[in-house]
Fold these 2 entries.
Entry 1:
Amino acid sequence: MKHFILVLGVLLWLALPARAQDAFTAALPGLAGGFGDIATSVEQLGTAGDPRALPLLRALQEGKLQKAPDGRILLPQGADLADAATGQPADAAGAETVRLNNRVRQALRGALGRLQLVSPDAAERAAAADAIFRSRSADDVKPLQTAIARESDAGVRARMELALAAAQLVAPDESAKRDAIARLGAAGTVEARALLLEARTANPGLITAIDVSIASIERTLSLRQAAETLFQGLSLGSVLLLAALGLAVTFGVMGVINMAHGEFVMLGAYATFMVQEACRGIPWLAPWSLPLSVPAAFLIAAAAGAALERGLIRHIYGRPLETLLMTFGVGMILQQAVRLAFGAQNREVSSPPWMQGTLMLPGGISVTQNRLWIIVFGIAVLLLVVAAIRFTRFGLEMRAVVQNRRIAATMGIRTGRVDALTFAFGSGIAGMAGVALSQIDNVSPNLGTGYIIDSFMVVVFGGVGSLAGTLVGALTLGVVNKVLEPYAGAVLAKVFVLVAIMLFIQRRPRGLFALKGRAAES
Amino acid sequence: MSASLAAPAPGGFGRMSLRLVLIGALLLLALLPVLNRLPADSALHVSDFIVSVSGKWITYAILALAIDLAWGYAGILSLGHGAFFALGGYAIGMHLMRLIGPRGVYGHPTLPDFMVFLGYKELPWYWSGFDHFPFAILMAVAVPGLLAGIVGFLAFRSRITGVYLSIITQALTYALMLAFFRNDMGFGGNNGFTDFKELLGMPLNTPSARSTLFYASLLLLLGALWLCGWIARSKLGRVLVAIRDAESRVRFLGYDVTQHKLFVFVLSAMIAGLAGALYVPQVGIINPGEFSPGNSIEAVIWVAVGGRGTLVGALLGAFSVNALKTWLTTVAPDLWLFALGGLFVAVTLFLPRGLIGLFSKAAK
């Protein structure tokens, strides 16, 4: 029994191409005839599924197919012509181009689509499904059903199913139509909706079913829209989070207002650029320059921060307004120095290959990879900061100095060193924010100025001295900005957010997550 | 709080000598347009450039005075005073735009060029009234005053002080800049207003218009100096200084701190608005760049360089920093931002009382 099936299978396998080849050769002469004959031949070639049919039909579509005076069909092969039936080189004398009319073109599109459906290349199969979706006819139902049955790629199958539903909608079978309408409703895409709207006028009997499906699609679409807005908001929020985390340490924890913070972010972005340029010559290293630039940016910004704290800021502790002015001046100098060193024009930091492209989440939500990575990076940095403050010796000393400087000093903590390290730590985080920003914004000397005000808003909104407040503040501001944008435009959304924060401070002058008890006294 | 900065001691670097220097300098300044009228080959002739630049600097000095009143006396460090200055400028700019009338490029009888270009059919409602000069001047004072009143009320009521207030005012001017950059605001978008023709019947960009605007600015400067000085010496001024140095204590003594601060903040914004209104006809252009936070903070550094809480220091700072800027941006433009940044650092570290403090130390 087993053997019998095997033999039968082998026989069938042998027989199928043979029969197909027969059909292929049988269809060829028609191509030399009138437009009607050509169209019939094309349709036959499309259903035969012979591998040689695809190049032949393509040549026909491009107007390169020739017919010899004796009726043989000649296919261009490089610069020469070959007999389409035998594959032997043929004489081009007296050959003329096989001409097309609209009917042939239509037949060609369908036939090519069906042939491509069985192509070994997944991208070609997907393209074929899309082509059928556009040109849909009742004849496509069968080949599509066969193709779907053996399709292994889920993404391609989804597109084939959409094309099948489209074909079934124009086929006469009433129950298949209802089935197709239900499946289109479940697919929940813009194309499916357009298809259903078109079918609505053509099928008066099915209007209720179609309307149910359209309503379902619209629900899906608005949910997806909301999810994508949320995602964009979260990614903007994590950019703000990164920029504001450093501030939460220097301003929130130390109480030092650093207007040069944005310039530290800018330094981090330029460090990323420099690491990228350094890695450019080493092919195996080049895709990993971005992860490498994270420590580089941290160290450069942290060194700048430590120098600023030791050199200048420590002399005017306790005079916040002077600190504000002085650090603003430092920011100006840094900006101008970078402008002179690197030029005023934007520098390009390219995304590594593993960060490019769009990711499709379940439910058809598309997210750009680099934005996704920024969210991941922002959360990772937040966790690192929390861990550093909670679990390390440095974090312990830092908290001690913040709570009570004198007693901390009595306990043997070198408060000056802790101050410098804390400030360097906060500045280093700003540098890491610069790495993330280099992926979504232009790296230019005034990169930081655009973010500094927003970052301060995040810290003020979330509550000075609270990392949780910074997280919630940043994500809230990011999402609110992105939700408002479609209604008010980016600029007015920003203005609105600023006004809202001012009003919010009326209710909670110390922010969302205000410190309570003794620590709150300042 | 910065308790180190008491009001300058009476006596000391003699009030008399300070006053004499000031009067001398102002007299010299007042002579400039007269010297400008001398024949060009005269040794005392002063170029048009110097007159127009000093006219501009006088309006800067008024702005610095306004900042000093709020910061030096009441301890309110506003990083958004440039916004009040620019709003005053926009108010007079709207008037100047209306005066162009049909002489614009498009020749529309009422609409300014940019409105024709943007497809406006009629003047927006908030442009009505600006064809009258008194109304425009009123708005140049009232709009900044109103804005300062709202922001100040919200901020001082919830006891937002120090750097928080600075950041909020900076956010305010930043938001205004973004808003004025928009074309659909009806204020000319990023091009702002320019191509002015005349003011009060006199064609701009003539020697007589220049000197008239110059003397108007000088008069306003003297008026503002007198008003601020009077406030500083009054009981109100003493309460303001007390608020600056120990806000809570003044509150517990029964003074209404919020109202005092609100008064001085609104007054300061109004003076800044008037300064802007005199600035725009002299430079002939106003655009949203005037709202940029950098401008406001630059004005603050004038006051810091001169010496805050002294009024005269504000004038000294505005003139000297701008003189340095004009000179350096022609000699070595790349160095100017280094110099400005260096000024921020040097003044806060080494000259907390500014040039005036340096002089009084030298006098001792």
Entry 2:
Amino acid sequence: MSQEYQVLAGPEGYLPPAAAVMGVELPKTGEALVEGSLVSDTEALHKIADKLLSAKNPFFFPGPLLLWAWKAGVAERAQAVRDLADAVGAGVIPMPDYRPKYPMINPAIEINPNHPNLTIWHNKIDVCVFVGVHCHYANIALKIIRGGTSCYTIALCGEAGHEDAMISLRDVNLAKIQELTAIVMDKKRQIAGGGK
Amino acid sequence: MTKNILKMSPAFADIIPAEYRELVDNGPYGRDVGVAELGTFKELLEEHPLCAGCGLALALRIFLASLPAPEDTIVVGSTGCSSLVFPQAAVQNIHSLFGNQNSVASGLKRALKLRFPDKDKDVIVVAGDGATADIGLDMVMHSWFRRENITTIMLDNEAYANTGGQESGMSQQGTVLYMAPKGKNFPKISMPELAREAGCVYVAVGTPAQPRKLEKMIKRAILLARHIGPTYVQIMTPCPTNYKFKNNETVNRLKGLEKDGVFKPREYITAEAQEALNKLEEVSK
């Protein structure tokens, strides 16, 4: 088992190992994961902004925890994520629930955790953001994406984070989403101004 | 269930696919709609991978339209043709190991009673004849002996249909199938009578060829299971693929089986359940 296993964009092949099995540990409070290494929360926020702004075709995949206003505060968090996607200039494809769809989902308008690769291939997505997806479904979808596509995955998790995402934040709340939006806007201004 | 789970976050309302929007705007959740209103509301199942003419598909459409409270229903399924449908239906469902469905449902119902003591949560087992009468018979019978407050629905296509066509305990004696070339050599199991003797307070045998009647049976079974005791509904669902009839003949075949006396719709109800049913049906008038 390697302690230096890097969680990189694939395709890693059929049945890639779970990053946890390869020694990648979940971040502690205030930390985040970037490609399998523990970094500070702030460093990860900047990495996410850089990845999103340098992507050719970034997409956000909001899950049921955000799409449905099932408890107080969700609608505000959803609005903040939409503002973030708009700030990046990213597309948004929803994951309204986890039902498998046969004969096939419509990959142009939705993503399914059981076949996330179909949506990524169809839309030629090079960087994606999972947000508001229940952890167990996010884990399997992130692994499938790493196994079969070259898409770079980012997970904004309200719980403990995801080892199988290339970048994973933990304890993401409204304030953290707004902080990320502010960083994105700031970097965009720097890019527009030709500065660093 | 809080109905808020059906409320779209305004920020993403514009990207929610049409199927979900229709379920929110015109679905059966929290509404008094049933088989008579089919075609006027968004059904819980949009697509399914079952064979053309499948009797199960017809029965499941009626079943889903008959649920008294789909938002507070959990379907427990088992291996078989019906398990291809439930993961796609817009109702909570659990797929159990082959034959374990009534044990899973028992535990689930007990947990829900503890978690939501003031709310009726309907736990309904929907499984094929193989899962109910053969592989899971032990678990099915013991859930009835224990008087669990669950509904068991058997979709009886008289075969193991999606594994190539083996005979099941529910196949008629003499039945020849792809994987039973010598013909079955013992009679069909009398599950309704077993259910009655094992403690089910309501037992019904129906067919999708009589949708309103089947709806009534399903509703009765679910409502009685809430407080009175276990209930059982056996639905005859012929399989055109294994029984080699044309896929537009399913309903006629059902009618023919009944006319020939091969299939007999029937109901058993205990005195206690009848009393409860009289009150329930009086209230709903």
